[in-house]
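Team,

Forwarding the record for the chain on the shared tracking sheet. I've put the sequence and predicted structure together so nobody has to dig through attachments.
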Amino acid sequence: MKKVFLVLVIIGFSLLIGIRPGMAENVGNEVCPVTGEKIVENAKATYEHEGKIYNFCCPMCIDDFKNNPEKYVEKVEKEQVSY
């Protein structure tokens, strides 16, 4: 019984401070890191990489991202800084 209580306390605390196991963070990029095109919300494609969700203008761009994620993550980070 004490173990169950302890687990519930740990889960509750982690939710309180924002730790959500298995929950990826949407980086919210508005420009496709592969093509540089503005992302249309109702037509976008998304891909999760290392706990973050990246937005793309189309599903084909995800393949390019997978081949060199560091290159495109850097582009997204630069976009985020410029806002």
